[in-house]
Amino acid sequence: MSGLFYTCEKCGKDKIASEFLPAKSLFFPQNKTPICIECLEDMIDENDGSLDFVDKLCRWLDIPFIPDRWIEYSTANGSAALSTYVNTTLTENYPMIDWREMNEEYKGLLAQGNLRNAFSILKDADMEKLREKWGEEYLDKEIAYLEDLYQGILQTQNINSKLQADDAKQLCKIKLLIENRIRGGEDFDKLIKSYDTIRKSAGLTEKNIKNANDFDSFGEVFAYCEKLGWLNDFYDDTPRDQVDTVMKDVQTWIRNLYKNETGIGEDVDRRIEALKAADAMEESILAIPDEEELDDFDAEGYDDDFDEEAGI
Description:
- By secondary structure, the chain is mainly alpha-helical.
- The protein is built from 13 helices and four strands.
- Strands 1-2 form a two-stranded antiparallel ribbon.
- Strand 1 (5-7) and strand 2 (14-16) form a beta hairpin.
- The protein is elongated, with a radius of gyration of 38 Å.
């Protein structure tokens, strides 16, 4: 793994960093998984979406396995839900949840035929954390709306700071107020203005929508192509346009200037001598006489004054 590109250890292909899952495990010092997202999704499909396999994958990633969340995501998107699940789990950070405890509890309830109870327990735990995040004043359905909207913003916008994340949460709250006002038939013009102001100041606009597969500059396109071994067939150090011609002319002029101009050496020598003369003059002007020279100078002045007063 180097630079913008990573090599998948399973398929052996070089891919950009966004095509690998983020990871906080100490086994991945690059903070990226060594296997690309596409290969991991293929592995899930090969195992028919088995919860046991997803559980093993979570152990490998050192993240908690939350069965109801995975089932919800995978039901909607299949194996493609892996990125959403990992990013959501890493973002929310579960300091008190261990994957073994969650998995064993889930398996025990599943064996007893209490799958619905397993879901309700897990959802209650999630809701408690979401209440701490959004506040106790919201209803369960309002919290679900806020969290869904917030996660959608995180997944589609380039949010790089806590300030932007906080602005995104404020946007979600204002959006909920707008929805409630609309349902109640009340005026919401001021809320719309506040929503647009925060959205623009935080940079959460259509122009800021991120695409993991996009390049930010044309230089990245060339770097990616060269990484894959691409090179212009006509590249032979021959000027192909006006820019190449100007650059070559400038290089030739500089080369001839120093090779063929015979007076440059003499000019350099004269310049060195002038600098030496200037330094010597400066030293003579700034030279400070020693103490004996100052005494002799004072004595000489005293004698001259005395002779003039004496008329001698």
